[in-house]
Amino acid sequence: MNLLLDIYIHIDMDAYYAQAEQKLLKIPDDQPLCARQWNTLIAINYPARAAGIKRGMLSDEALKLCPEVFLPHVETFKISDGKMIFSTIQDKFTQHNQIEEKISLRYYREESKLIFAIIKKFCGHVEKGGTDECYIQVSENELEKIEQNEFVGNLMCNLPQDYKLTEQDILIMKASQLCQQIRDTIYSETQYKCSAGISFNKMLSKLASSTNKPNKQTIILECMLPNCIAEFNIKKIRGFGGKIKHAFIKSEIQTIGQAQKLTLAQLEMLFAEKAQFVFDKLRGYDTEEVKKDSEQKHKSILSLKNIKKTFSRDTIHQSLELIIHDLTMRVTDYFEDTNLIPSVVVLHYHNIEKGSHQKSEPVFLSLPIDSFRIQIEDRVNSILNSIQDSDLFPLVLIGLSCRYFKTMSQGIQNPITSYFKKVIESQEQDKISKIIEEVEKELSPQDYYKCENCQQEILKTLKDEHNDFHIAENLDKEMNPKKRKYKSLNNDNKQQKQVLTQLMKKS
What we know:
Subcellular location: Nucleus
Structural class: alpha+beta
Pfam families: IMS, zf_UBZ
Protein name: UmuC domain-containing protein
Keywords: DNA damage, DNA repair, Metal-binding, Nucleus, Transferase, Zinc, Zinc-finger
GO molecular function: DNA-directed DNA polymerase activity; zinc ion binding
Strand content: 15-25%
C-alpha cells in the first residue's frame, strides 16, 4: 500500500465535558457553561471563553467575570455500606465533599462510546486519542466511492495561482467530504459538535483540527508546506519528546517557523541521531500511522484521586477505598464486554518532593465477579505495605491502574480447579514478573509525556491531574517566592540553551 495515498483525519470534540453537561442539563449551547471539579473549572465552553473564563480558574473568579455562567459539578460518587452512591442531576449545583467523594467520568465515557460507534460505521481504521478525539486513516480505495470533487472546509492557506491539484490533493478533497458526513452524523445523532483536520499525515491532521475551532474543519495540502505551519507553537508538534520541546522553549524558540531557520547540520549539533527526525517534523513530514485495533488491545484502566497534602496512611486508605470501587466497576464492565482481565495492578503516587512513582504486583482475578474488588484490594494493600513512608510522603495524588489484559480462564470455582489455578499462578509468576519490570521501567513509551513545567515523565492519562498540581504550585510560588525549591528552577539546561541561542543568531 502506498502510504502517500492514505489520508488522515483528526476529529476533536469541542469543549467535550462542557458539551456533555449542556446536553445532560438541556442548557442551550449559546449559554456560558463550565464543568466544575470541586471548586476548580476543568472544561470551558466557547461562550464562557468569550467572557474571559479560563481553565483552572476558581468558581468565584468565573462568576465575577460572567455572573450568568452555569457551573455544574462533574459526577461524583461516595461509598455507603460498601456500595457506590452516585451524585444526581440535583447535586450538580451544590457543594461536594472532596474527602468523602471521588470524581466519576462514567457519563463522559458512555457518551464517548456513542460517538465512536458512529465514527466506526464510516471507517474501520480508527485510533482513539482519549474520550474526545480520534485519528482516522482512510485508504485510496475507501475514498474512490466519493464522487463529488470539491473541498469542504477551510484551506489552511490559499492555493498558488494556476495550481493543478495532485492525485493526493484530490484524495484529501474527498476525505474532507467524508469528514463532513461523519461530523454531521455525530451531531444529528448525539448533538455533539466537533472540529476536524484533514491532511496527508497524522501530525498535520491534528495541527489542522485545532486551527478553526469550534465546529469547523481545516485542510492542509502538501503544497502549503512549510510556511502554513510556521506560526504554530512548537509545543503543537506531535511526536517531539520532552527534551526536544524543552530545548527549543528554553532558547525562547516559540514557533515552528523560528525553529525552521535551523539547518540540519545545526540540529545535529543538538539532537545527534534525532536531527533528521526533528528536521522533517518542523517541515510538516511525519511517517506515523494510525494504530490498528490489534495494536490498541493492551488496554490500561486508570483511576486517580488528588488529595490534600498528607502524611497519613489512614487518608491514603480512605482515598483508595473510593479508587478501588471505581477501578473495579470499570474492570468488571470491560470483562463483561471482552472476557479479558488484567494481569498487573499498578499503584501510582505523587510525592510532592520526589515526584511521580509507581509500583506493581501481579493479580489473578477469579470468578465470581462480585469478588473482583476484594482480590484487587488485597493486591493494592500488599503494594502499599511494601512502600516506605519516606517514599510516600508528603503525598498529593494516589491512583491505581490495571494493565496487560488476558482472557479469563474458565471453570476456576471448584476446589480442584482452584488448586490447579494456584499451580498455574506459580508458573506464571516469572512471566508476569517480566511484565512488571516493563511497567516499572516505563509502562510503555506511548503512555507517557514529558511535562514541560517540571520535565518529569508523566502518564498521559494523568495529564489533567498533573496540570492541576502545577496550577496549585504556581499559586504557592506567587505567595511564597523565596522558598528554596523555587530559586533553582531556572538553572537547568543552561548549556543547551546557550548553544541554541548562538545558532539562532547565526541563522
